[in-house]
Amino acid sequence: MDIRKTPLSKRQKPDLAKALFIELSEMGSAIIVDPAMRKLRKEGGAELFFAIFEDNYKSLEILNTIPEQNIFKMRSHGLVALAIDVVRFMVWCRKHEIKTVIDLELFSRFTALLCGLSGARSRVGFASHHDEGLYRGSIINFPVRYNPHVHVSVNFAALVDTALGKHDTPYATTPVAADELVLAKAVINAAEVEEVKGKIKDLYPDWNGHRLVLLNVNASDLLPQRRWLPEYFAAVATHLLETFDDVLLIGTGAPKEKAYVQNVVDLVHHERFVNSAGVFKFGELVPLYSICTLMLTNDSGPAHFASVTDLKVFVIFGPETPALYLPLGNAEPFYLGLPCSPCVSAANHRKTTCLTRPCITGISPDWIKSRLAEYLRGK
């Protein structure tokens, strides 16, 4: 019998006692899925587990929805390590008696294989259904048709609703209310805030109540087309410094991004624009965001990390669309919406050959200067 032709209502309902989410490569998605995970725990009584690449697991520490001991960290820096960790994953799933797996990846055949290797009886994940391409076999026995026209958080909620037995076909027919997509706020330690303030003082000893504006000028190497031009960031920074004498600009980034950030800082060459790349630990980002006024960022992880605070975040979108990936917090996009946009999606494995990138280079610094200045005046 082909299980794909069996109505979901005729199959054994998922056992939610031990539910594993798989999202290996997207740190932002590990934040976006949090409301759906909390819903599964609340309505299904599930003990939650998560599998993620080791380099990305810290994103799960921001809200601490998943206990540390329930996170499987998979290495990705070599085929041998990856093969060993697949075996470790199989053992780990059986040790924890995983009953249901929810695959958050958009049509990854590798994570579909992990679902099968987990030993879980119920395996929930995205399927193309009657759409073209990206077939993943029958390993996913509770398929949910991925909808490319709604925000990814709604798609994640559809996976959880399927696990809860609310659908009897791959079509997610249960409405998703707006309050189901609200992120919890991070618990911020006062001592960590003071530590962050001390580091800011080290970067700019004359800091004395200046409003903090963050510029996240880099983006992941996985999709460099998302980077707004460094000279554009520099133009915005110069305008803000000339317009507001009570603003301190902080360029953020990982240690390996220090030179890239410094290039933008050097273009501006102003004492109230400092380079903090590598200065703040990952665990200090949320305390940092909590004391800042706004952040301007490329479409990347920090935009989502900041969404667990009240920080106003302006996100520059190019090859992807805010309709699907706008952070769930206090976020506002800059997006041209060209006829070719978005050019990367789950359907093409996020691949593009566009080099001129008019969707991102066409976003005028004047547009962003005006909106940020308007916001700062209002604050």
List keywords for this structure.
379 residues; 6-stranded parallel beta sheet; globular; alpha/beta
Terminus-to-terminus distance: 63 Å
Q: Which sequence of strands runs across the widest sheet? A: 3-2-1-4-5-6
The radius of gyration over CA amounts to 22 Å
Number of strands: 12
Shape: globular
The H-level CATH homologous superfamily of the largest domain, spelled out, is: Glycogen Phosphorylase B
CATH topology of the largest domain: Rossmann fold
CATH class of the largest domain: Alpha Beta
Low-confidence stretches: none
Helix content: 25-40%
Major β-sheet, in short? 6 strands, parallel
Backbone structural class: alpha/beta
Hey, roughly how much beta strand do the residues contain?
A: 15-25%
Instruction: Give the number of domains.
Output: 2
Q: What is the N-to-C succession of helices and strands?
A: EHHEEHEHEEHHEHEHEHEHEHEHH
Helix run count: 13
Mean pLDDT: 91
Secondary-structure arrangement, i.e. CATH architecture of the largest domain: 3-Layer(aba) Sandwich
Can you walk me through this structure?
The chain is an alpha/beta fold. The protein folds into two domains: 3-181, Glycogen Phosphorylase B (Rossmann fold, 3-Layer(aba) Sandwich), CATH 3.40.50.2000; 190-378, 3-Layer(aba) Sandwich (Rossmann fold), CATH 3.40.50.2000. It has 13 helices and twelve strands. The strands form two sheets. A six-stranded parallel β-sheet has the order 3-2-1-4-5-6, sandwiched between helices. A six-stranded parallel β-sheet has the order 9-8-7-10-11-12, covered by helices on one side. Strand 10 (294-298), helix 10 (301-305) and strand 11 (312-316) form a beta-alpha-beta unit. Helix 2 (34-44) packs parallel to helix 5 (152-163), helix 7 (230-243) packs across helix 8 and helix 7 packs parallel to helix 13. The termini are far apart. The relative contact order is 0.12.
